[in-house]
UniProtKB/TrEMBL annotation:
<dbReference type="GO" id="GO:0005634">
    <property type="term" value="C:nucleus"/>
</dbReference>
<feature type="domain" description="Transposase Tc1-like">
    <location>
        <begin position="75"/>
        <end position="141"/>
    </location>
</feature>
<dbReference type="GO" id="GO:0006313">
    <property type="term" value="P:DNA transposition"/>
</dbReference>
<dbReference type="GO" id="GO:0015074">
    <property type="term" value="P:DNA integration"/>
</dbReference>
<dbReference type="InterPro" id="IPR036397">
    <property type="entry name" value="RNaseH_sf"/>
</dbReference>
<feature type="domain" description="Tc3 transposase DNA binding">
    <location>
        <begin position="4"/>
        <end position="43"/>
    </location>
</feature>
<dbReference type="Pfam" id="PF01498">
    <property type="entry name" value="HTH_Tnp_Tc3_2"/>
</dbReference>
<protein>
    <recommendedName>
        <fullName>Transposase</fullName>
    </recommendedName>
</protein>
<dbReference type="Pfam" id="PF11427">
    <property type="entry name" value="HTH_Tnp_Tc3_1"/>
</dbReference>
<dbReference type="InterPro" id="IPR002492">
    <property type="entry name" value="Transposase_Tc1-like"/>
</dbReference>
<dbReference type="InterPro" id="IPR009057">
    <property type="entry name" value="Homeodomain-like_sf"/>
</dbReference>
<dbReference type="GO" id="GO:0003677">
    <property type="term" value="F:DNA binding"/>
</dbReference>
<dbReference type="InterPro" id="IPR025898">
    <property type="entry name" value="Tc3_transposase_DNA-bd_dom"/>
</dbReference>
Amino acid sequence: MGPTQLSDVEKAHILALREENVPVSEIMRRTGRGRSTILRLCKEARDLSPTVVPQYKKRPGRKRKVSQLTDKLLKLVVTRNPRLTAKELKSMYPELLKDVAIRKVQHCLKHHLDLRSRVAALKPLPTDKMRRKRLTFAKQHNWSVEQWKGVLWFDESNFRVVTSHRLRVRRPLKRNRYDPRHTISYCY
């Protein structure tokens, strides 16, 4: 994990400890921060009044093209409809994503929001004939819930053995693969 910025509370705490002449090694132990961080903060605070906490300088580098607010919006939209592609998202929000490449939208979904593109799971779609057979079977066998748990198949289903080009969905790794929003129903 990369370095994290000191909060204003942490800065004030470190400076207060330093004012009390607490050794740097003790401050390191109490705060969990490095020696150079503490010394740099004390050096910056030396030129300021004792009640002022030093602020961060503007960091170098280019600003993000996709703001954190836009990231939240993309996450909301994609969790509602995980089948949306980056191209569709860009066309849905032209004002927010006008200067952003489609590849950057994909990057944001994958790395910033942890919504990787995955192949949708296939789930056989029961036909009307299958539903009627299931209903008659259930009416004939008045079983308890425990007995029904032992039934694996009570009708015949066709399964696709060879895969073809399948639809992709955005799904977090920890979500259930067989959630209806992340599956494709098919029928022969």
